[in-house]
Write a structure and sequence with these properties.
344 residues; alpha/beta; Rossmann fold; four-stranded parallel sheet; globular
């Protein structure tokens, strides 16, 4: 068996223009695991409402963070892939869930190199149906339809892996060496509350009542909310952080639906008004900086915090292509390639 690896990230439009945003957003928002409503209603919401105005607004946001080399997420993901490939002895490819450079193209690239067993690596630390799960489902669909002889193995969500926590903690500590903060905010990407309940295999544990995430359950294996809070707690322990100076929140949401709270933009105002003048923000739901980190948090977040009365603001970058993060992923891949073991 020739083994290979497919790293998968979210994806990006081809350019920061409404013309390229429209097909990208269409593919993204028409995903039944992103907007999980009746297909007819989803079509009305996405194509009848959202795509009539959002591409222009999103294009302006993307233009603010676009690099000369292209989309930051694509550039950073490729840098990460290239560095990892140099440290392992099996082929490594990159795929995107949405947009150009698809999962199918990544699997095709590996097959053409003689690969017949693939380690699928969703580049999401936490399990959510709209991120990790949709990558796995799409990869399985493409494998079944186009590459029936390929065997797929999936890297589990690594939100609480001790080595990952050490790498993430080190990246945070380095950024805070020169910034004396009043508060450190862990901002995770938001999801609708109903996604939490849908992902609960017990169908009764996840009540989002402040207690369920701290009560042991098999539901935690697929509970995004629990996993986010667990990451924050593990980082607090690793860095010996003052609990009174650390909190978690959830960014990005669609209107007219209850999403996970507290909302990050509301927290900016609350913290500033409570006298937290110096704020540091980390976005651990992402391993690569993208629109949601570079524009929503690093730019808009700073503006919101300062307008609310804050004085100093730092956005801590994602792990991107840090050498220690590259080395850790390479070790996970090598352990699977040689010993058939996966991180826990």
């Amino acid at each position: 068996m020739q083994k290979g690896v497919l790293l998968v990230n979210l994806g990006s439009p081809d350019s920061p223009t409404a013309k390229d945003l429209k097909p990208y957003l269409d593919e993204f928002l028409m995903d039944e695991r992103v907007i999980d409503v009746n297909p007819v209603l989803r079509n009305i919401i996405v194509r009848g409402i959202i795509l009539q105005t959002r591409p222009k607004r999103s294009a302006k946001a993307y233009a603010k963070i676009w690099w000369d080399e292209g989309s930051p997420l694509i550039v950073l993901s490729n840098r990460f892939k290239d560095k990892v490939a140099k440290k392992v002895k099996i082929p490594v490819a990159l795929g995107m869930r949405y947009g150009s450079g698809s999962i199918k193209e990544g699997l095709q690239e590996l097959q053409e190199q003689g690969v017949d067993e693939v380690l699928l690596v969703p580049l999401y630390p936490h399990y959510a149906m709209s991120s990790y799960e949709t990558v796995v489902v799409k990869a399985m669909e493409d494998q079944k339809a186009h590459f029936p002889d390929l065997k797929l193995t999936t890297l589990p969500a690594f939100f609480n892996n001790p080595d990952y926590i050490k790498v993430l903690a080190k990246s945070i500590a380095e950024q805070l060496e020169s910034f004396e903060y009043d508060h450190l905010l862990f901002s995770y990407h938001g999801i609708p509350e109903r996604h939490i309940r849908k992902s609960d295999p017990t169908k009764f544990h996840c009540k989002i009542d402040g207690q369920c995430c701290s009560t042991n359950s098999v539901a935690h294996h697929t509970c995004y909310r629990h996993q986010c809070y667990a990451t924050t707690e593990l980082i607090k322990k690793e860095l010996k952080l003052d609990s009174g100076k650390v909190s978690s929140s959830f960014q990005s949401r669609l209107p007219n639906d209850p999403w996970l709270k507290p909302y990050t933009d509301f927290e900016f105002e609350r913290l500033a008004k409570e006298g937290k003048k110096r704020l540091a923000v980390i976005t651990p739901a992402f391993v690569s900086d993208c629109l949601e980190t570079l524009e929503e948090i690093a730019m808009e977040g700073e503006e919101q915090f300062l307008e609310a009365g804050g004085t100093d603001y730092v956005h801590i970058p994602c792990l991107n292509d840090r050498e220690d993060w590259v080395a850790l992923m390479a070790r996970w891949i090598s352990d699977w390639a040689v010993h058939e073991t996966l991180p826990v």
